[in-house]
Amino acid sequence: xxxxxxxxxxxxxxxxxxxxxxxxxxxxxxxxxxxxxxxxxxxxxxxxxxxxxxxxxxxxxxxxxxxxxxxxxxxxxxxxxxxxxxxxxxxxxxxxxxxxxxxxxxxxxxxxxxxxxxxxxxxxxxxxxxxxxxxxxxxxxxxxxxxxxxxxxxxxxxxxxxxxxxxxxxxxxxxxxxxxxxxxxxxxxxxxxxxxxxxxxxxxxxxxxxxxxxxxxxxxxxxxxxxxxxxxxxxxxxxxxxxxxxxxxxxxxxxxxxxxxxxxxxxxxxxxxxxxxxxxxxxxxxxxxxxxxxxxxxxxxxxxxxxxxxxxxxxxxxxxxxxxxxxxxxxxxxxxxxxxxxxxxxxxxxxxx
Length: 353
Description:
Radius of gyration: 19 Å
Number of helices: 16
CATH architecture: Alpha-Beta Barrel
CATH superfamily: Metal-dependent hydrolases
Low-confidence stretches: none
CATH class: Alpha Beta
């Protein structure tokens, strides 16, 4: 908790980038992933940077959980499963492993499943398996599929794949859909990360909530228009939040303009752990205020205490109908809380010992 207010990390994804799962044809992309991790932290927090052999590994769920709840003041997290993103041979974060860890620590996590096939019948069948057998809490989508070392983008308003998949998700009782947008990640085509395909499904599926993961990194004005028109659209601020350390002007502009246009009630803190570590992001945000020159430049108001609490956890709690009192009661003396009380360890303590 921060100032007695709940903290929820809306994107947590331990990944398997081990040599056994690396695509030999995409080693340059793996190097870029490590570079992105390094760039998410400023020199003052260099101790939070993972070395290549650390980040390009099968990072354990325990490592990420300790980073969240022992090394950082996070109370609750949303595990995101990830399909093959083109630089691996198999899924990046396997739903079954993520769910198993959620089931081990239900007081700390919910979990989104995913699908990794462009064949809509197979995708729906896999989604049904994850609902029936795993009990996933939502669906994470990536806007490209990979085969023969090529990436093919798909649109969320497409009638051949996305629409029947969303219809099936709704029938199966899924209420939350997160999709990676705005931030381009090769080898997928850059066009796949545009957001011009969101308007139609936002209107056609009003009972689903959609999260634009990496919201605020690009297409800001278009994002604001979408949010203004669609009360079921949330911004999951993975990557954007790291700009608080490395690109303050962009952070101020993105967060400040979003709050000014649509309010702070649909903005979600997200570290993207293990792409970044939550501790320095939260430390920087505790007393954060938009720079005066940026307020004048971008026409921003001030960041209020209520804005801060909304973004850090209250919005996620409302979105997922989390019982804040129950979370506090169940986590106040669990294994992570006891470890934190014993002394906050150095970053990535479960990985580095």
